[in-house]
Amino acid sequence: MNARSADRAATLMFWLGAAAVLAILALLLGYILWHGFRAISWDFLTAPPQTIMAGGGVGPQIFNSFYLLFLTMLITIPIGLLAGIYLAEYAGAGRLTEYIRLSMETLTSLPSIVVGLFGLLIFVNLTGWGYTLMSGALALAAINLPFIVRVSEETIRTVPVELREASLALGATRWETMWRVILPSAFPGIVTGTIIAAGRVFGEAAALLYTAGMSSPVLNFTDWNPLSPFSPINPFRPAETLAVHIWKVNSESLIPDVRQVADGSAAVLILVVLFFNILARWLGRYIHHRLTAT
User: Fold this and answer.
1) Which of 162, 174, 225, 276 is the most exposed place for a label (fewest CB within 10 A)?
2) Structure confidence by residue, pLDDT tens digits, 260-287
């Protein structure tokens, strides 16, 4: 086989591999959405679930998922961004840096169920909080923190060194250079990574089984006291998320329309995760265009 034929054969194999991935993705999405759309309605999206009778919804589960996402990112983003800045700009070669990188790689490779068991021991039992939103948020923060740190570090490293040198040459301090020059340049990549991490949080279930719980109190949306057990903004109440609800419905639910509820819940979850990924790409391109005018 000559070089041209080998190049065409390799190109064909690459295209076939990409087409196979797209076909599998389209098949999975099509199957879930086809069955799920028939169950989705306004009542389904807003009504609470049922334990025995048919006709329940996933309203509290959707709210719990977004509230848990807010708490998780509130913990993860500041710590991850500061750690990424330290590793990219301030950390030199040494044992401390090696230990930090090793810790991040270890956390990245841990199964989420292991993090959930750790959260059960520390955030649920040791603190005495029980199954709460805060316990789940801390467990998910441990899962997502290595990803945010890596994204922040790699994005900051891609900023041209000439920008740093120009800022320092004009008399700016190292921190002023970081805050006013480097971070704005790295902002599109950081935002994209953060939104992708948010999508991962929304779809997580294994760690939340042991930390946030598999039930939720009847929420009173007129009660905004964060200490009330029935307040939707109370972070120390149990909360069943949408992903956990899908698992629970399929494994131990007694409702007669279990398949319809599971299909509708899965479709809603898929649509939200797709929205996060599409938003990440669009927002990254938009911010890059606004900052660079290209």
Assistant:
1) 162
2) 888 899 999 998 888 888 887 787 777 7
The CA distance from 184 to 188, in Å, is: 8
Dihedral of the CA atoms 105, 133, 57, 206 (nearest 10)?
Answer: 30
Q: Which two tokens stand for residue 121?
A: 């021991």
Residue 172 DSSP one-character state: -
Q: Quote the CA–CA distance of 288 and 46 in Å, as a whole number.
A: 37
In contact, 291 and 184? CB cutoff 8 Å: yes
DSSP string, 202-266: HT--HHHHTTT-S------TT---TTSTT-TT-TTS----HHHHHHHHHHH---TTHHHHHHHHH
34 token code pair: 């086809």
Give 248's contacts (C-beta < 8 A, 6+ positions apart).
214, 240
Which residues are CB-contacts of 167 (< 8 A; sequence separation ≥ 6)? 176, 177, 180, 181
Helix (H) or strand (E) holding 138: helix 133-157
Measured over the CA atoms of residue 107, residue 108, residue 109 and residue 110, the dihedral's sign is positive
In the chain, the DSSP E strands lie at: none
- Whose CA is closest to 132, among 217, 7, 249? 217
Say if CB 72 and CB 201 are below 8 A apart: yes
What gap in Å lies between CA 28 and CA 278, rounded to an integer?
18
Q: Cα separation of 277 and 267, whole Å?
A: 15
152 and 81 Cβ atoms separated by less than 8 Å? yes
Give the C-alpha separation, 183 to 293, whole Å.
17
Would you state the CATH architecture of domain 42-292?
Answer: Orthogonal Bundle (1.10)
Question: How far is residue 101's CA from residue 96's CA, in Å, rounded to a whole number?
Answer: 9
Residue 19 predicted with pLDDT over 90 = yes
What lies within 8 Å, CB to CB, of 213 at 6+ separation is 130, 131, 132, 136, 238, 239, 240
